[in-house]
Every structure is written in structure tokens, then in C-alpha cells.
UniProtKB/TrEMBL annotation:
Record has Signal as a keyword: yes
InterPro entries (alphabetical): TrbC/VirB2 (IPR007039)
Protein name according to UniProt: Conjugal transfer protein TrbC
Transmembrane segments: 61-81
Organism: Phyllobacterium zundukense
S-adenosyl-L-methionine listed as a keyword: no
GO cellular component: membrane
A Pfam family assignment: TrbC
Compartment(s) where it occurs, according to its Swiss-Prot or TrEMBL record: Membrane
Lineage: Bacteria, Pseudomonadati, Pseudomonadota, Alphaproteobacteria, Hyphomicrobiales
Membrane-related topology note: Multi-pass membrane protein
Main subcellular localisation: membrane
UniProt keyword list: Membrane, Signal, Transmembrane, Transmembrane helix
Secretion signal, residue range per the UniProt entry: 1-37
Length: 107
């Protein structure tokens, strides 16, 4: 019995079944009444304020301090240059995400 549940075919079937059920659930949840979507204005404004918090003055200053600290650590050999580039790419992606989503949405 353990060999059946531990086999790669069972794991693959379980993963595919889970992904199918997840997609079906998302499809059913996305098919809601349009009147229900109008009550999400407070949630949208809270999410917008959160994005502004992380990409505004606070996020830029924290990102600058992180870059300075990582660059000094890499210069003195306490941090690898590859890790510096990975974190720098993550910070650049964080700041570009809001602009990219706005561009794709047509704003």
C-alpha cells in the first residue's frame, strides 16, 4: 500500500487533481454578481495605500539603505556579488511591479 501512495504516478495524479480543483474553484468564485464587486472599494483603497507605502518615500529609503549595506558587505567580502544582484533585482522588480501592472491594465 505504501508503494502505491509513494509512487511518482500517484504524486503526479494528486498534484494534477489538486490543480484542476483549484482552477475550478477560482472559476466558480470569479463568476459572481457584479453588484457584489462594487462593495470592494475600501479593500481597493487599502491595497493602493499599501502599494504606495512600499513604493513611496519609505520604500525608497529602505531600499537605498539595503543597497548601501549590501554593497559594503560585498565590497569587504561578507556578502557575495551574486546575492547582491539577486536582491537588487528583487528590489527593482518590487518598484517596477506597480508600473508594470498599470501598463498592462491600460492606465
Amino acid at each position: 500500500m505504501k508503494a502505491v501512495f509513494g509512487s511518482m504516478a500517484f504524486r503526479r495524479m494528486f498534484a494534477h487533481s489538486f490543480m484542476l480543483m483549484l482552477c475550478v474553484g477560482i472559476l466558480f468564485l470569479s463568476h459572481t454578481d457584479p453588484a457584489a464587486a462594487q462593495s470592494l472599494q475600501k479593500l481597493e483603497s487599502a491595497a493602493d495605500r499599501l502599494v504606495q507605502f512600499f513604493t513611496g518615500k519609505f520604500g525608497r529609503s529602505v531600499g537605498a539603505m539595503a543597497f548601501i549595506g549590501m554593497f559594503l558587505a560585498a565590497a569587504f567580502g561578507f556578502w557575495s556579488w551574486g546575492a547582491l544582484l539577486r536582491v537588487g533585482g528583487a528590489l527593482a522588480g518590487m518598484f517596477a511591479a506597480a508600473e508594470l501592472v498599470g501598463f498592462l491594465a491600460g492606465n
